[in-house]
Amino acid sequence: MRVVDVAIVGAGFAGLAMAGALRRAGRDDIVVLERADDVGGTWRDNTYPGVACDVPAHLYSLAAHPNAGWSRTFARGQEIQTYLQGVAAREGLGDRLRLRTPLLGAEWDAVDAVWRLDTGAEPVVARSLVLACGRLTEPHVPDIPGLESFDGPIFHTARWDHSVALTGTRVAVVGTGASAVQLVPELARRGAQVTLFQRTPAWIVPRGGGDIPGADREHLDAHPGDLARLRADLYAEGEQRFASRSGDAAASAAARATALDHLHAQVADPALRAALTPDYAFGCKRVLLSDAFYPAVASDAVTLEPTALAAVDGPMLTAESGERYEADVLVLATGFASAQQPYADLVRGEDGTLAAHWSEGMTSFGSTVVAGFPNLFVLNGPNASLGHNSAVLMAEEQAAYVVRALCERDRRPDPVLRVRPEAEAAYTDEIAAAAASTPWLTGGCRNWYVDDRSGRLTLLWPGTVQAFRERLVGTDGSEFFATPGSGPEAAGAVPAAAASPGRAASPGPAAEPAPVAEPAPVAQPAEAIPIRPHVHPHA
């Protein structure tokens, strides 16, 4: 059986970024496995009314595939899906992309030093495995008594049923996170009567933006340097938001005031305003962008129930407050299984599964490699998300790190990269120290960034994108066990970036971004990072 050099699981932003980085580095011996019938990840799966990105579109693009033709400041989901389909076509993946090919299991074969993948069809054998499965793949369905008794249509926002008529129906929406904030105004606009169950209100700031005139799109297409500068400006704006999200007193107070002014300007009823006002620190939960949510909630089309849905009995929904409501359609806007990655049970390394290794929360070195799992790389996994800037940037930085690591693997007489447990533990301690005083842990809310089993911040990187880039570029291979004739000779060597307290690569809240540099319009191969020091916001 032929052994492929790199198998990539997932064909969303991260998987396509990884495939492109490998190909530009001259590494064409790859396969991309995708369980669905098309690329696109979350933008393929989420088709609910109003779905859009809250990162400016010119920034929410791969560096190697800038797009001057975005039609809106914040692109709608279908436009992003079309963009990713175009990326896959331009990358020329051909038969390297295998659709309708799920990962059913992956096991490290120490004898042959390969990963053996079960796809339910022909097995795949690879020298290295990249998991680009995403954080927003498996919908979270809350454990609500009687939920199965609801006698009308019931579905999650990520599995929207377009056959269900909405006009004139009573629609109950459970949750007030990012999906609900986009969905509820659309339901109201389409003539539904909405009951909105709010467990916890969100901090919401103005969105702005709108349609991008055709003349502007033509200009950016004709002047790629201007598009690169626009991306750099948007990135710099995003990096500046880190201060308000991570607990800087002055920046947080200013952002909080902006959010409260936005609420007061759009909701006249003092009682409704009070119900929509968070009682936790700004940044503790994901900060949302919307100009339409508050007016919709304040309209006659929406009834806000300021407590969670507690029980379901046929068409009757009972809130924690004791209030009861009837509904024809029940929509769960309840997020995803993000802190506990669904694929973790499927991947078996030297001593057990990823799920077992992560039983107290995800851990890694560099947010990308994991002790006990040789030649394995995880994108969008431990501490690789952001609360202030574009997560696409993080995936691109990880992809560049993977390319460098594979070059290190190829230089070794024993072509196996094994992460030293001490390196993983040290990186985990770095994250914990940087996160300890942030609102994500101290802000008085429950968020999806923190693993309930350990209370550790396991989803977010507690620093700027620039700090993450420097952290990964600053590695020297000593995160891996040494092998004869390559790498550091001392198995106990400390990774270079961790050995110098206070270096800019530290993920701590005090990390400052470097001066803005114009990004290259096309990603560079091998050692270069897809986007230069400054190029992206929000995620």
Automatic annotation (TrEMBL):
Residues 483-539 are annotated as: Disordered. Residues 484-509, 519-528 have a biased composition (Low complexity). It comes from the Bacteria. Pfam families: Pyr_redox_3 (PF13738). Coiled coil: none annotated. This is Cation diffusion facilitator CzcD-associated flavoprotein CzcO. It comes from Microbacterium proteolyticum. The lineage of its organism: Bacteria, Bacillati, Actinomycetota, Actinomycetes, Micrococcales.
